[in-house]
From TrEMBL:
This protein's name: ABC transporter, permease protein
Keyword Cell wall biogenesis/degradation attributed: no
Protein source organism: Streptococcus infantis X
GO annotation, cellular component aspect: plasma membrane
Family, per entry: Belongs to the binding-protein-dependent transport system permease family.
Alphabetized SUPFAM superfamilies for the sequence: MetI-like
Length: 279
């Protein structure tokens, strides 16, 4: 029976561990500061030296957030935009990626090259045409003004094409011999294989849409249609700012996004890992 020997503790291991611990603290500290600040009174939030933990926790900031502002409406707007965009992006990107990966047609490579080129374009470049189109459709200052421009996400098509490359062509040919149509072939044969990528894309899309402050800022103007991110930004006054109230709004806005990532973290990492390996 072989005795298990512990690996010697090297200087590299110690330094890398300390470095990773410092990075962990660096990333976690903003969340800690927002969470604790949400339960502080205004004098405590601006105290110097800072109060690292609320000595007299209060729910006043959350009460003001709900009473003085339509925070629940803002939260619903954010959830609705993120969920609908996630569903539509996943549906269109999975179908488009499957077609680009497994179907052969004239101009296929050119079309895929256009998607790759679109990934390199900053959103600000296409903003003016998007605003003109949204105004022409008559949906400006509605939630759909944020949702519709995000549906054709080039990264989603690229990601699902990479996953669809792993679908064996023999399975698709067998399904066609058995009499399956294109929709049934995709749903019954292709989709179970690309499901990890579908889950990863869903998380990507939800997080990206939730954090898309710039598009929301341009497309939404009325107070009732704001998202939680925009609503929290409007609470910053010119002369005086209630930092406890803003931190309460920021804490509320962070809850869904952190929950989604923690719940679906396994699917997210599995999807990214599988997408990195072909065959």
């Amino acid at each position: 029976m072989q005795s298990t020997q512990k690996k010697p503790l090297t200087a590299f291991t110690v330094i890398s561990t300390i470095f990773l611990l410092l990075l962990t603290v660096l990333f976690i500290f903003p969340f800690y500061w927002i969470l604790t600040g949400a339960f502080k009174s205004q004098p405590d939030t601006i105290m110097i030296p800072p109060q690292w933990f609320p000595k007299a926790p209060t729910m006043e900031n959350f009460q003001q957030l709900m009473v003085q502002n339509p925070a629940l409406q803002w939260m619903w707007n954010s959830v609705f935009i993120s969920l609908v965009t996630m569903f539509l992006v996943c549906a269109t990107s999975s179908l488009a990626g499957y077609v680009l990966a497994k179907k052969r047609f004239y101009g296929q490579r050119i079309l895929f090259a256009i998607f790759i080129a679109a990934m390199a374009l900053p959103k600000q470049v296409v903003l003016v045409p998007l605003v003109r189109i949204v105004n022409f459709m008559g949906i400006h200052d509605t939630l759909w003004a944020v949702i519709l421009p995000l549906i054709g996400w080039p990264f989603g098509v690229f990601l699902m094409k990479q996953f669809s490359e792993n679908i064996p062509t023999e399975l698709l040919e067998s399904a066609k011999i058995d009499g399956c149509g294109e929709i049934r072939t995709f749903w019954s044969v292709a989709f179970p294989i690309v499901k990890p990528g579908f889950a990863a894309l869903a998380i990507f899309t939800f997080i990206n849409t939730w954090n898309d402050y710039f598009m929301q800022l341009v497309m939404l103007t009325s107070r009732q249609n704001l998202t939680i991110s925009l609503g929290v930004a409007t609470m910053q006054a010119e002369m005086a700012t209630n930092y406890g109230l803003i931190m309460a709004g920021a804490a509320l806005a962070a809850v869904p996004i952190v929950t989604v990532f923690l719940v679906f973290q396994k699917s997210f990492t599995q999807g990214i890992t599988m997408g990195a390996v072909k065959g």
